Protein backbone atom coordinates (compact mmCIF):
# COMPACT_ATOMS: atom_id res chain seq x y z
CA UNK A 1 0.00 0.00 0.00
CA UNK A 2 1.37 2.03 -1.35
CA UNK A 3 2.20 4.37 0.36
CA UNK A 4 0.57 6.84 -0.21
CA UNK A 5 0.86 10.75 -2.77
CA UNK A 6 3.41 13.00 -4.36
CA UNK A 7 6.28 11.47 -6.31
CA UNK A 8 8.92 13.11 -4.17
CA UNK A 9 9.30 14.85 -0.87
CA UNK A 10 11.74 17.60 -1.32
CA UNK A 11 12.82 18.69 2.10
CA UNK A 12 11.92 18.10 5.70
CA UNK A 13 10.31 21.51 5.98
CA UNK A 14 8.21 20.83 2.91
CA UNK A 15 7.14 17.52 4.36
CA UNK A 16 6.08 19.08 7.63
CA UNK A 17 4.30 21.91 5.88
CA UNK A 18 2.56 20.63 2.81
CA UNK A 19 4.11 17.93 0.65
CA UNK A 20 4.45 14.22 1.20
CA UNK A 21 5.99 11.39 -0.79
CA UNK A 22 4.70 8.95 -3.40
CA UNK A 23 1.61 7.01 -2.68
CA UNK A 24 1.09 8.90 0.49
CA UNK A 25 -0.19 12.25 -0.55
CA UNK A 26 -0.12 12.70 -4.23
CA UNK A 27 -3.57 13.97 -3.68
CA UNK A 28 -3.15 17.65 -4.14
CA UNK A 29 -3.74 19.30 -7.48
CA UNK A 30 -0.69 20.32 -9.52
CA UNK A 31 -1.20 23.92 -8.44
CA UNK A 32 -1.74 23.16 -4.75
CA UNK A 33 1.90 22.97 -3.73
CA UNK A 34 5.38 24.00 -4.88
CA UNK A 35 7.01 22.13 -7.73
CA UNK A 36 9.54 19.49 -6.70
CA UNK A 37 13.14 20.62 -6.46
CA UNK A 38 15.61 19.10 -8.85
CA UNK A 39 18.34 16.90 -7.46
CA UNK A 40 21.81 18.37 -8.11
CA UNK A 41 22.97 15.08 -9.61
CA UNK A 42 20.48 12.33 -10.35
CA UNK A 43 22.12 8.95 -9.71
CA UNK A 44 22.66 6.84 -12.82
CA UNK A 45 19.88 4.31 -13.24
CA UNK A 46 17.37 6.14 -11.05
CA UNK A 47 13.92 7.03 -12.35
CA UNK A 48 12.88 10.64 -11.98
CA UNK A 49 14.97 13.77 -11.71
CA UNK A 50 13.84 15.16 -8.36
CA UNK A 51 15.70 14.81 -5.08
CA UNK A 52 15.53 11.09 -4.14
CA UNK A 53 16.27 11.62 -0.44
CA UNK A 54 12.81 10.71 0.75
CA UNK A 55 11.42 8.53 -2.04
CA UNK A 56 14.24 7.12 -4.18
CA UNK A 57 13.65 3.44 -3.41
CA UNK A 58 9.88 3.86 -3.44
CA UNK A 59 9.62 5.49 -6.85
CA UNK A 60 12.25 3.17 -8.34
CA UNK A 61 10.42 0.10 -7.08
CA UNK A 62 7.07 1.23 -8.44
CA UNK A 63 8.60 2.18 -11.77
CA UNK A 64 10.32 -1.19 -12.21
CA UNK A 65 7.23 -3.12 -11.11
CA UNK A 66 5.00 -1.14 -13.48
CA UNK A 67 7.33 -1.75 -16.41
CA UNK A 68 7.42 -5.46 -15.67
CA UNK A 69 3.63 -5.49 -15.45
CA UNK A 70 3.27 -4.14 -18.99
CA UNK A 71 5.91 -6.43 -20.50
CA UNK A 72 8.84 -4.03 -20.50
CA UNK A 73 12.19 -5.25 -19.22
CA UNK A 74 13.76 -2.49 -17.13
CA UNK A 75 17.32 -1.46 -17.85
CA UNK A 76 19.87 -3.49 -15.90
CA UNK A 77 21.34 -0.29 -14.48
CA UNK A 78 17.93 0.58 -13.02
CA UNK A 79 17.62 -2.81 -11.31
CA UNK A 80 21.23 -2.61 -10.13
CA UNK A 81 20.54 0.81 -8.60
CA UNK A 82 17.70 -0.64 -6.56
CA UNK A 83 19.55 -3.74 -5.36
CA UNK A 84 22.50 -1.54 -4.47
CA UNK A 85 20.33 0.33 -1.99
CA UNK A 86 19.82 -2.76 0.18
CA UNK A 87 21.49 -2.87 3.56
CA UNK A 88 23.37 -5.95 4.72
CA UNK A 89 20.51 -6.80 7.09
CA UNK A 90 18.12 -7.07 4.12
CA UNK A 91 16.19 -3.86 4.69
CA UNK A 92 15.98 -0.77 2.52
CA UNK A 93 16.03 2.88 3.52
CA UNK A 94 14.22 5.54 1.50
CA UNK A 95 17.55 6.46 -0.13
CA UNK A 96 21.24 5.90 0.50
CA UNK A 97 23.45 8.45 -1.20
CA UNK A 98 26.77 6.95 -0.14
CA UNK A 99 26.83 3.22 -0.81
CA UNK A 100 30.43 3.01 0.34
CA UNK A 101 29.21 3.65 3.88
CA UNK A 102 27.64 0.60 5.47
CA UNK A 103 24.20 0.81 7.05
CA UNK A 104 24.29 1.26 10.81
CA UNK A 105 21.90 2.06 13.63
CA UNK A 106 21.45 5.56 12.25
CA UNK A 107 20.26 4.31 8.86
CA UNK A 108 16.50 4.75 8.72
CA UNK A 109 15.56 1.40 7.23
CA UNK A 110 11.79 1.20 6.84
CA UNK A 111 9.10 -1.34 6.07
CA UNK A 112 7.55 0.53 3.15
CA UNK A 113 10.70 0.99 1.11
CA UNK A 114 11.67 -2.61 1.84
CA UNK A 115 8.25 -4.00 0.90
CA UNK A 116 8.08 -2.02 -2.34
CA UNK A 117 11.59 -3.09 -3.31
CA UNK A 118 10.78 -6.71 -2.48
CA UNK A 119 7.70 -6.70 -4.70
CA UNK A 120 9.64 -5.23 -7.61
CA UNK A 121 12.70 -7.44 -7.26
CA UNK A 122 10.62 -10.58 -6.80
CA UNK A 123 8.72 -9.82 -10.01
CA UNK A 124 12.03 -9.33 -11.80
CA UNK A 125 13.38 -12.68 -10.53
CA UNK A 126 16.26 -11.08 -8.69
CA UNK A 127 18.76 -13.15 -6.78
CA UNK A 128 17.22 -15.18 -3.95
CA UNK A 129 19.85 -13.82 -1.60
CA UNK A 130 18.51 -10.31 -2.19
CA UNK A 131 14.81 -11.09 -1.88
CA UNK A 132 15.33 -13.65 0.88
CA UNK A 133 17.18 -11.11 3.01
CA UNK A 134 14.35 -8.60 2.53
CA UNK A 135 11.78 -11.20 3.57
CA UNK A 136 13.79 -12.05 6.66
CA UNK A 137 14.10 -8.39 7.64
CA UNK A 138 10.38 -7.74 7.22
CA UNK A 139 9.52 -10.74 9.35
CA UNK A 140 11.87 -9.46 12.04
CA UNK A 141 10.06 -6.11 12.07
CA UNK A 142 6.61 -7.59 12.75
CA UNK A 143 4.95 -6.12 15.83
CA UNK A 144 3.38 -8.13 18.62
CA UNK A 145 -0.10 -7.29 17.30
CA UNK A 146 0.83 -8.96 14.00
CA UNK A 147 1.18 -5.77 11.97
CA UNK A 148 3.89 -3.36 10.95
CA UNK A 149 4.64 0.30 11.46
CA UNK A 150 6.63 2.44 9.07
CA UNK A 151 9.78 2.07 11.18
CA UNK A 152 10.64 -1.08 13.15
CA UNK A 153 9.05 -0.84 16.57
CA UNK A 154 6.61 1.85 15.51
CA UNK A 155 2.89 1.38 16.08
CA UNK A 156 1.21 -0.73 13.42
CA UNK A 157 -0.74 1.10 10.75
CA UNK A 158 -3.02 -0.13 7.99
CA UNK A 159 -0.89 1.09 5.12
CA UNK A 160 2.41 -0.38 6.30
CA UNK A 161 0.81 -3.66 7.32
CA UNK A 162 -0.92 -3.98 3.97
CA UNK A 163 2.07 -3.27 1.76
CA UNK A 164 4.17 -5.74 3.75
CA UNK A 165 1.48 -8.41 3.36
CA UNK A 166 1.49 -7.84 -0.41
CA UNK A 167 5.28 -8.01 -0.60
CA UNK A 168 5.57 -11.18 1.46
CA UNK A 169 2.80 -12.87 -0.51
CA UNK A 170 4.57 -11.93 -3.75
CA UNK A 171 7.67 -13.61 -2.34
CA UNK A 172 5.70 -16.81 -1.62
CA UNK A 173 5.48 -16.26 2.12
CA UNK A 174 2.27 -17.48 3.75
CA UNK A 175 1.08 -14.44 5.66
CA UNK A 176 -2.07 -16.22 6.88
CA UNK A 177 0.05 -18.12 9.36
CA UNK A 178 2.81 -15.59 9.95
CA UNK A 179 2.55 -15.18 13.70
CA UNK A 180 4.12 -12.63 15.99
CA UNK A 181 5.59 -13.28 19.42
CA UNK A 182 2.07 -12.82 20.80
CA UNK A 183 0.68 -15.35 18.30
CA UNK A 184 -1.03 -12.66 16.20
CA UNK A 185 -1.20 -12.60 12.41
CA UNK A 186 -1.09 -9.57 10.07
CA UNK A 187 -4.82 -10.04 9.53
CA UNK A 188 -5.44 -9.75 13.26
CA UNK A 189 -3.73 -6.35 13.09
CA UNK A 190 -5.87 -5.27 10.12
CA UNK A 191 -9.02 -6.41 11.86
CA UNK A 192 -8.07 -4.20 14.78
CA UNK A 193 -7.79 -1.24 12.41
CA UNK A 194 -11.17 -1.81 10.73
CA UNK A 195 -13.83 0.64 11.93
CA UNK A 196 -16.58 -1.34 13.71
CA UNK A 197 -19.80 -1.61 11.77
CA UNK A 198 -21.88 0.26 14.32
CA UNK A 199 -19.63 3.33 14.30
CA UNK A 200 -19.39 6.28 11.95
CA UNK A 201 -17.58 5.13 8.81
CA UNK A 202 -18.14 1.52 9.76
CA UNK A 203 -16.41 -0.94 7.43
CA UNK A 204 -13.63 1.43 6.41
CA UNK A 205 -10.09 1.20 7.71
CA UNK A 206 -8.39 3.76 9.90
CA UNK A 207 -4.74 4.58 9.48
CA UNK A 208 -4.09 4.18 13.20
CA UNK A 209 -6.18 4.69 16.33
CA UNK A 210 -6.16 8.25 17.61
CA UNK A 211 -4.82 9.18 21.05
CA UNK A 212 -8.05 7.99 22.63
CA UNK A 213 -7.99 4.69 20.76
CA UNK A 214 -10.80 5.66 18.39
CA UNK A 215 -10.77 4.59 14.76
CA UNK A 216 -11.75 7.15 12.12
CA UNK A 217 -12.49 6.09 8.55
CA UNK A 218 -9.74 7.03 6.13
CA UNK A 219 -10.12 6.43 2.40
CA UNK A 220 -6.38 6.15 1.74
CA UNK A 221 -5.93 3.56 4.49
CA UNK A 222 -9.06 1.78 3.29
CA UNK A 223 -7.70 1.36 -0.24
CA UNK A 224 -4.57 -0.15 1.24
CA UNK A 225 -6.49 -2.22 3.77
CA UNK A 226 -8.71 -3.82 1.14
CA UNK A 227 -5.65 -5.09 -0.71
CA UNK A 228 -3.98 -6.19 2.50
CA UNK A 229 -7.03 -8.08 3.73
CA UNK A 230 -7.18 -9.86 0.37
CA UNK A 231 -3.47 -10.70 0.48
CA UNK A 232 -2.89 -8.66 -2.68
CA UNK A 233 0.10 -6.56 -3.65
CA UNK A 234 0.44 -3.41 -5.73
CA UNK A 235 -0.38 -5.30 -8.93
CA UNK A 236 -3.83 -6.87 -9.21
CA UNK A 237 -4.75 -9.01 -12.17
CA UNK A 238 -7.94 -8.02 -14.01
CA UNK A 239 -10.91 -10.35 -13.75
CA UNK A 240 -12.12 -11.94 -16.97
CA UNK A 241 -9.48 -10.03 -18.92
CA UNK A 242 -11.08 -6.79 -17.78
CA UNK A 243 -14.21 -7.40 -19.82
CA UNK A 244 -16.52 -8.17 -16.95
CA UNK A 245 -18.72 -5.33 -15.74
CA UNK A 246 -20.37 -7.37 -13.04
CA UNK A 247 -20.79 -5.66 -9.72
CA UNK A 248 -19.97 -7.64 -6.62
CA UNK A 249 -23.04 -8.45 -4.53
CA UNK A 250 -23.81 -5.64 -2.14
CA UNK A 251 -24.14 -6.68 1.47
CA UNK A 252 -27.28 -5.52 3.19
CA UNK A 253 -25.09 -4.01 5.87
CA UNK A 254 -21.51 -3.91 7.09
CA UNK A 255 -20.58 -7.50 7.92
CA UNK A 256 -18.71 -8.89 10.88
CA UNK A 257 -19.50 -6.25 13.48
CA UNK A 258 -16.33 -5.33 15.35
CA UNK A 259 -14.59 -8.61 14.47
CA UNK A 260 -14.82 -9.18 10.70
CA UNK A 261 -13.00 -11.93 8.89
CA UNK A 262 -10.35 -10.74 6.40
CA UNK A 263 -12.79 -11.39 3.56
CA UNK A 264 -15.54 -9.41 5.30
CA UNK A 265 -13.13 -6.57 6.12
CA UNK A 266 -12.11 -6.35 2.46
CA UNK A 267 -15.73 -6.36 1.28
CA UNK A 268 -16.69 -3.73 3.86
CA UNK A 269 -13.78 -1.53 2.84
CA UNK A 270 -14.64 -1.86 -0.85
CA UNK A 271 -18.22 -0.83 -0.12
CA UNK A 272 -16.94 2.26 1.68
CA UNK A 273 -14.66 3.17 -1.22
CA UNK A 274 -17.41 2.65 -3.77
CA UNK A 275 -19.53 5.16 -1.88
CA UNK A 276 -16.62 7.59 -1.55
CA UNK A 277 -16.16 7.90 -5.33
CA UNK A 278 -19.76 7.35 -6.44
CA UNK A 279 -20.67 11.01 -6.82
CA UNK A 280 -17.59 12.74 -8.23
CA UNK A 281 -15.47 9.83 -9.40
CA UNK A 282 -12.56 10.79 -7.19
CA UNK A 283 -11.44 11.15 -3.59
CA UNK A 284 -10.87 14.52 -1.99
CA UNK A 285 -7.52 15.64 -0.63
CA UNK A 286 -7.06 15.39 3.14
CA UNK A 287 -4.25 17.97 3.13
CA UNK A 288 -4.68 21.10 5.16
CA UNK A 289 -5.42 24.01 2.86
CA UNK A 290 -6.37 21.73 -0.02
CA UNK A 291 -10.13 21.74 0.48
CA UNK A 292 -12.12 20.55 -2.51
CA UNK A 293 -8.93 19.44 -4.25
CA UNK A 294 -8.94 15.97 -5.85
CA UNK A 295 -6.68 13.22 -4.57
CA UNK A 296 -5.23 11.67 -7.72
CA UNK A 297 -2.92 9.07 -6.27
CA UNK A 298 -5.37 7.62 -3.79
CA UNK A 299 -8.11 7.62 -6.41
CA UNK A 300 -5.83 5.40 -8.49
CA UNK A 301 -5.29 3.17 -5.46
CA UNK A 302 -9.05 3.02 -4.98
CA UNK A 303 -9.49 1.74 -8.54
CA UNK A 304 -7.02 -1.07 -7.82
CA UNK A 305 -8.71 -1.93 -4.53
CA UNK A 306 -12.20 -2.00 -6.05
CA UNK A 307 -11.03 -4.18 -8.91
CA UNK A 308 -9.29 -6.56 -6.50
CA UNK A 309 -12.52 -6.85 -4.50
CA UNK A 310 -14.50 -7.69 -7.63
CA UNK A 311 -16.16 -4.28 -7.84
CA UNK A 312 -15.24 -3.75 -11.50
CA UNK A 313 -18.27 -1.63 -12.29
CA UNK A 314 -17.66 0.61 -9.29
CA UNK A 315 -14.07 1.13 -10.46
CA UNK A 316 -15.28 2.41 -13.83
CA UNK A 317 -16.19 5.95 -12.80
CA UNK A 318 -12.96 6.78 -10.94
CA UNK A 319 -10.96 5.15 -13.74
CA UNK A 320 -12.69 7.34 -16.33
CA UNK A 321 -12.07 10.39 -14.14
CA UNK A 322 -8.37 9.55 -13.96
CA UNK A 323 -8.17 9.08 -17.72
CA UNK A 324 -9.58 12.55 -18.20
CA UNK A 325 -7.86 14.46 -15.41
CA UNK A 326 -4.65 12.84 -14.16
CA UNK A 327 -2.23 13.90 -16.91
CA UNK A 328 -0.92 17.15 -15.40
CA UNK A 329 -0.62 15.57 -11.95
CA UNK A 330 1.37 12.60 -13.25
CA UNK A 331 3.64 14.81 -15.35
CA UNK A 332 4.50 16.88 -12.29
CA UNK A 333 4.71 14.01 -9.83
CA UNK A 334 6.85 11.67 -11.91
CA UNK A 335 7.54 7.92 -12.08
CA UNK A 336 5.59 6.77 -9.01
CA UNK A 337 2.49 8.55 -10.28
CA UNK A 338 2.77 6.98 -13.73
CA UNK A 339 3.20 3.61 -12.03
CA UNK A 340 0.07 4.09 -9.93
CA UNK A 341 -1.93 4.87 -13.06
CA UNK A 342 -0.50 1.81 -14.82
CA UNK A 343 -1.52 -0.36 -11.87
CA UNK A 344 -5.05 1.08 -12.05
CA UNK A 345 -5.25 0.48 -15.78
CA UNK A 346 -3.90 -3.06 -15.45
CA UNK A 347 -6.30 -3.98 -12.64
CA UNK A 348 -9.28 -3.05 -14.80
CA UNK A 349 -8.03 -4.51 -18.08
CA UNK A 350 -7.50 -1.04 -19.55
CA UNK A 351 -4.70 -0.43 -22.05
CA UNK A 352 -2.08 1.74 -20.28
CA UNK A 353 -0.72 2.70 -23.70
CA UNK A 354 -4.01 4.41 -24.48
CA UNK A 355 -5.07 5.85 -21.15
CA UNK A 356 -7.34 8.73 -22.01
CA UNK A 357 -5.23 9.15 -25.13
CA UNK A 358 -1.94 9.05 -23.20
CA UNK A 359 0.73 6.35 -23.39
CA UNK A 360 1.57 5.80 -19.73
CA UNK A 361 4.23 3.24 -20.59
CA UNK A 362 6.10 5.70 -22.79
CA UNK A 363 5.69 8.50 -20.28
CA UNK A 364 7.06 6.35 -17.46
CA UNK A 365 9.91 5.16 -19.64
CA UNK A 366 10.89 8.72 -20.41
CA UNK A 367 11.69 9.32 -16.75
CA UNK A 368 14.48 6.72 -16.60
CA UNK A 369 17.09 4.73 -18.50
CA UNK A 370 16.16 2.98 -21.73
CA UNK A 371 14.58 -0.44 -21.45
CA UNK A 372 13.62 -3.36 -23.66
CA UNK A 373 10.45 -5.37 -24.14
CA UNK A 374 10.34 -8.46 -21.96
CA UNK A 375 11.73 -11.48 -23.70
CA UNK A 376 14.14 -9.47 -25.84
CA UNK A 377 17.12 -11.55 -26.93
CA UNK A 378 19.39 -8.55 -27.01
CA UNK A 379 21.94 -9.19 -24.23
CA UNK A 380 22.97 -5.55 -24.26
CA UNK A 381 19.53 -4.38 -23.17
CA UNK A 382 19.66 -2.47 -19.92
CA UNK A 383 23.22 -2.11 -18.70
CA UNK A 384 24.57 -1.01 -22.08
CA UNK A 385 21.52 0.95 -23.15
CA UNK A 386 21.91 4.59 -23.97
CA UNK A 387 21.20 7.09 -21.23
CA UNK A 388 18.62 9.09 -23.14
CA UNK A 389 15.53 9.94 -21.13
CA UNK A 390 12.94 9.75 -23.92
CA UNK A 391 13.67 6.47 -25.60
CA UNK A 392 12.53 3.62 -23.38
CA UNK A 393 9.12 3.27 -24.95
CA UNK A 394 10.53 3.38 -28.46
CA UNK A 395 13.08 0.71 -27.60
CA UNK A 396 10.47 -1.56 -26.07
CA UNK A 397 8.15 -1.17 -29.04
CA UNK A 398 10.91 -1.80 -31.54
CA UNK A 399 11.74 -5.07 -29.76
CA UNK A 400 8.30 -6.42 -29.63
CA UNK A 401 10.00 13.39 19.99
CA UNK A 402 8.77 12.74 16.64
CA UNK A 403 11.64 12.62 14.28
CA UNK A 404 11.44 14.18 10.83
CA UNK A 405 12.09 10.71 9.42
CA UNK A 406 8.86 9.48 10.96
CA UNK A 407 7.02 12.40 9.44
CA UNK A 408 8.64 11.71 6.09
CA UNK A 409 7.99 8.02 6.49
CA UNK A 410 4.31 8.44 7.01
CA UNK A 411 4.19 9.96 3.55
CA UNK A 412 5.97 7.09 1.86
CA UNK A 413 3.69 4.14 2.43
CA UNK A 414 1.98 3.48 0.10
CA UNK A 415 -0.17 4.99 -2.45
CA UNK A 416 1.65 5.60 -4.07
CA UNK A 417 0.69 4.76 -2.31
CA UNK A 418 -0.05 1.11 -1.62
CA UNK A 419 1.18 3.23 -2.66
CA UNK A 420 -0.31 1.32 -2.18
CA UNK A 421 1.46 3.18 -1.78
CA UNK A 422 0.64 2.51 -0.23
CA UNK A 423 0.98 5.82 3.22
CA UNK A 424 1.79 5.92 6.88
CA UNK A 425 1.59 9.66 7.08
CA UNK A 426 1.11 12.84 8.99
CA UNK A 427 -2.50 12.76 7.93
CA UNK A 428 -5.85 13.89 8.99
CA UNK A 429 -8.49 11.25 9.45
CA UNK A 430 -10.71 11.65 6.42
CA UNK A 431 -14.26 10.97 5.42
CA UNK A 432 -15.59 11.29 1.90
From TrEMBL:
<feature type="region of interest" description="Disordered">
    <location>
        <begin position="366"/>
        <end position="399"/>
    </location>
</feature>
<dbReference type="GO" id="GO:0003824">
    <property type="term" value="F:catalytic activity"/>
</dbReference>
<feature type="signal peptide">
    <location>
        <begin position="1"/>
        <end position="26"/>
    </location>
</feature>
<feature type="compositionally biased region" description="Low complexity">
    <location>
        <begin position="26"/>
        <end position="44"/>
    </location>
</feature>
<dbReference type="InterPro" id="IPR001330">
    <property type="entry name" value="Prenyltrans"/>
</dbReference>
<feature type="region of interest" description="Disordered">
    <location>
        <begin position="26"/>
        <end position="46"/>
    </location>
</feature>
<keyword id="KW-0677">Repeat</keyword>
<keyword id="KW-0472">Membrane</keyword>
<keyword id="KW-1133">Transmembrane helix</keyword>
<dbReference type="Pfam" id="PF00432">
    <property type="entry name" value="Prenyltrans"/>
</dbReference>
<protein>
    <recommendedName>
        <fullName>Prenyltransferase alpha-alpha toroid domain-containing protein</fullName>
    </recommendedName>
</protein>
<dbReference type="InterPro" id="IPR008930">
    <property type="entry name" value="Terpenoid_cyclase/PrenylTrfase"/>
</dbReference>
<feature type="region of interest" description="Disordered">
    <location>
        <begin position="234"/>
        <end position="265"/>
    </location>
</feature>
<feature type="transmembrane region" description="Helical">
    <location>
        <begin position="404"/>
        <end position="422"/>
    </location>
</feature>
<keyword id="KW-0732">Signal</keyword>
<feature type="domain" description="Prenyltransferase alpha-alpha toroid">
    <location>
        <begin position="60"/>
        <end position="171"/>
    </location>
</feature>
<keyword id="KW-0812">Transmembrane</keyword>
Amino acid sequence: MFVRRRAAVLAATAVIGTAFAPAALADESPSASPSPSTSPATPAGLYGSTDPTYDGVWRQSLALLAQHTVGVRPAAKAVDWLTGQQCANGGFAAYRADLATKCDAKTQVDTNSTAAALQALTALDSDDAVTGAAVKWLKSAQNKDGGWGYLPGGASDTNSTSIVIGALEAADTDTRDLRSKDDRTPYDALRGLSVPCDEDGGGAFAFQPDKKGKLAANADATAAGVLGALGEGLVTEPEDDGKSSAKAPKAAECAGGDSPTPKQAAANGAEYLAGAVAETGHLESALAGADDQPDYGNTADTVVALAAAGRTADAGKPLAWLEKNSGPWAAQSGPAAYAQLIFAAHATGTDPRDFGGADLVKQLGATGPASKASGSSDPSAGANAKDGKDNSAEDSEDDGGVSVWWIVGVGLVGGIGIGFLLSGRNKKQQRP
